[in-house]
Amino acid sequence: MKPLFSDTEHRRLEAAVAAMEKKTGTQIVPAVVKRSDSYAELPWIAFALGAGLAGLLLVLLDLPLSDWNPRVSMLLISAVILGAGAFFGLLTVIVPPFARLFLARSRADLEVRQYAATLFLERELFATKQRRGILLLVSIFEREVVILPDTGLASRLSAPVLEGVIGSMTPLLKKKRIADALDTGMKELSSVLVTSGKNTHTDNELPDRIIEEEGV
Fold first, then answer.
1. 50 with 138: CB under 8 angstroms?
2. Of all residues in the chain, what percent carry a pLDDT higher than 90?
3. List of residues 6+ apart from 19 with CB closer than 8 A
4. N or C: where does the chain have the smaller number of CB atoms within 10 Å of the terminal CB?
5. Is the pLDDT score of 198 beyond 50?
6. Which residues pair with 147 in a beta bridge?
7. Comparing C-alpha atoms, which of 156, 155, 159 is closest to residue 146?
8. Is the model's pLDDT at 214 over the cut of 50?
9. Distance (Å, rounded) from C-alpha 106 to C-alpha 104?
10. If one looks up domain 7-38+104-215 in CATH, what number appears?
11. How far from 68 is each of 71, 82, 178, CA to CA, in Å?
């Protein structure tokens, strides 16, 4: 898998992780996945649209195909329709922005949340003192952010609070500034979680490195 971040970005993000953990007494794990699901249906949806548009175009143009050899005209019509469908389907494979046009936001949200929940368990983010781990996941293809706090932080990180943090990250994510989006998210979480007085949780229980995965 090609690295998603440069060495400089890695160092900056790892420093941001350490700073946030020291300031808030939490354990933050940033993660980036290229896509949270294969979405095998997208090429077929695009194929159907391409074929339908090609058929409609042939009808609207009213080409005099009937004057041709009937067998040849039918073969030509079929080739145009299937070719257009195949072209649209191929575009969803090689051009992610085109594929996103056929992806329902509800489906994307569900898949990213499922991926985040699985990653939370696989990486054992629950195995911290007082259950104070946080997963900050960015899924690039879907342009979605999911923040999963453990039970020890749930009362301080309510849904409206998390929506505000995600809202600050989304514009950067759309510009493909992934490192800046993660950095901004950690700063926003720090401002919410910072506690007055001395932080009594100083143990570094989870690695500070950024998780990078290809995804499904």
1. no
2. 70
3. 190
4. N
5. no
6. 136
7. 159
8. yes
9. 5
10. 3.10.310.50
11. 8, 20, 56
DSSP classification of residue 210: P
38-88 tens-digit pLDDT: 999 999 999 999 999 998 887 777 665 555 555 556 777 888 889 999 999
How does pLDDT run across 103-144, given as a tens digit for each residue? Answer: 999 999 999 999 999 999 999 999 898 899 999 999 999 999
Beta-strand relationship, 211-215 and 144-149: unpaired
Task: Name every residue whose Cβ is closer than 8 Å to that of residue 187 and which is 6 or more positions away in sequence.
Answer: 16, 20
For residues 14 and 186, what is the distance between their CA atoms, to the nearest angstrom?
11
Q: Is the dihedral of CA 202, 206, 207, 210 positive or negative?
A: negative
Residue 85 CA to residue 21 CA, distance in Å, equals 51
As a whole number of angstroms, the distance between CA 150 and CA 135 comes to 8
Amino acid at 99: A
Tokens for 51, please give them.
């074929």
